Structures are given as C-alpha cells and as structure tokens.
Amino acid sequence: MTGVGLKFVVSAVVVVLTTVAGYICRRRQWLDERVAEWIMTFVGVFGYSSVAFLSVWGTPLKAGDIWLPFLASAHVLIMTGIGLGISRLLTQDRAERGLFAIAAGSGNNGFTGGAFVLYLLHGEPGMGLSNIYIVMFMPMAVLLMYPIARHHSESNTGGSLAALYKRSLLDWRSIGLPIVLAAIALSAFKVQRPVWIAEWHLMDALVYLVTPLAFFAIGLRLRASKVLPMWKLIAGLGIVRFLVGAAVGVCLAWVTLQTPWPFDELRWDVFVVQSFVPTAVTMVAIANMFNLRPMEASVLFVANTIMYLVLALPVIFLWHSR
Questions:
Q1: Which of 39, 105, 124, 227 is in the most buried spot, having the most CB atoms within 10 Å?
Q2: What is the mean pLDDT of residues 202-227?
Q3: Residue 162: what pLDDT?
Q4: How does DSSP classify residue 90?
Q5: Which residues, in sequence order, are bridge partners of residue 107?
Q6: How far apart are the first and last CA of the chain?
Q7: Is 239:83 a contact under the CB 8 Å cutoff?
Q8: Phi, psi of 240 (to 5 degrees)
Q9: pLDDT of 55-84, one tens digit each?
Q10: Residues 91/97, Cβ–Cβ less than 8 Å
C-alpha cells in the first residue's frame, strides 16, 4: 500500500472512530452537545483556513487551469440555487430550507472526499488538480453560504441582503477569505513555501488534528432518531448531489470545449468526479456556527456520505475499470 493509500485508510478509520466516540459521549452524557458548536467554530474558522492556506500556497498554478476553480465556483452557485428552489418542495421549515441549500451547494472535494478518489484513479496528478479545484471553496463559503446560513438561521435578526453580505465579510469567522486570497497571491508570484512545512509534516499534523475534531463534533450532534423523520431531505439531497450535481458538472465541463483552453481528458475527469461528491463537512461546521439546525446537518452529512459510498462510488470505479 502506498503512503497516500495508507493515509486514506487511516483517515477513514479515524472518521468512523471519532464520530462514534462523539455519539457515545453525548449518549452517556459525558459531554454537553453544545461543545460541538465550539469545536466546529474552531474547525471552520482556524482549521480549514490553515489547511487551505498551506495547500493553495504549495500548488503550482498554470494559466490553463484557471477553469477549474472558477467553474467549480459556478458549480457551487448553481447547485446552491437549485437547492434553494427544491427545498420548498421538501420542507416548509425556513431553517431546513437554508440548510438544504448549503448541503446541496457544498461538496466534500478535499482530502477526505473527491481528492482521494481522484488519487486512486489518476495518482498524484489527480490529487494536484483537485487542490486547484478547491481554491475558491472558502471564498464561496464566505460570500455565498455564510449569508444564506445567517438569513435562514433561527437566530436571524433580519436586514437587507447588502447588510447580510457586509456582516458576513466583517464577521471574524470570515477570516478564511483573506487567508485564501493571500495564499493565491503567494502562489501566483511564485513565493516559495518554507521547506520546513514539508519537513515537519505540518499539513499532515493539521489534517489529523482538524479531521478527528470535526467528526467528533458531528458525533456529538448526531441523533439516529432523526433519520426517518428526515427521509425527504435525505433522499432529496442524494438526488441533488449525485444526479443533478453530475449533470451540472458535465455541462460546465462542456463549456470549456468551446474555448481555446478546453479540458483535456484528465481535467475533464477531475472536474466531473468532483461535481458529484457527497456534501461537505464544512456544511456541518457552518450549521453549527450559525445555529442552522446543526443536529439535522450532522444527520444529512452522515446519510449522504453513506449513500455516496454505497451507490455513487462503485459506479465511478466500474466506469473507470471498463
């Protein structure tokens, strides 16, 4: 087994064990589930921002790859809009509609989701292009998902859309946006990342700190009793993320074929596979940060991830093995 393959297996084991540990801690009342909100705020604001900064800074940028992050942003925007529209058919609850929109728009494209799948299919080039694909995810989360979460939150104080954007941009939890923009600038101007970051395995340390914390918090919020009452949202999210998401991804990838910089076979594969990964753990972090039905967010995340592993992932590998 390769080093990255081993990391994938270890990550999967850590995800399962820490989620179960969080669930047991809540069931036995060893920890109050409000601890999950503190953990997810730390993860969403500081953890993911740090990982995004280092990974973007360490990824060489090429002119032709500009399609990946910008079309990925278009995919998030379209999917979030579709999620908002479809949510009205699934629930009349305001907070649930906002949660569904964020779940529909955010995909697990990083080191615990799409990036690892593409590594297994294409090796290091797949992993490298995946890092370029997710460059704009944090800015999209701040500019699009934070305002939606705040607007639909049960603790929402109202106000105009302009006021919502202003509050989101100035919110201390939005620190990820300037951090990612700084990383893009460093990479674009070819500022070399310090060698000690790789020598000390700082990225690995952050990943294996942030990931267990995130899934432990999800376990704290997870309530198995909510699965059946949420069947419409769970089924709807599966259709939106895996069927609609793939269709939107193919259409956006086709657009590049009409330009002087079309996707080659590898980039086409990266973009389409990333377009129908399961919903992101970032969605759970945002739900906790803005009090947007965080327990339901955990159920949606876990159920959608299981659906992906059972239904979508086998199709991907069967398609590539033909």
A1: 105
A2: 82
A3: 67
A4: H
A5: 279
A6: 23
A7: no
A8: -70, -50
A9: 778 777 777 788 999 999 999 999 999 999
A10: yes
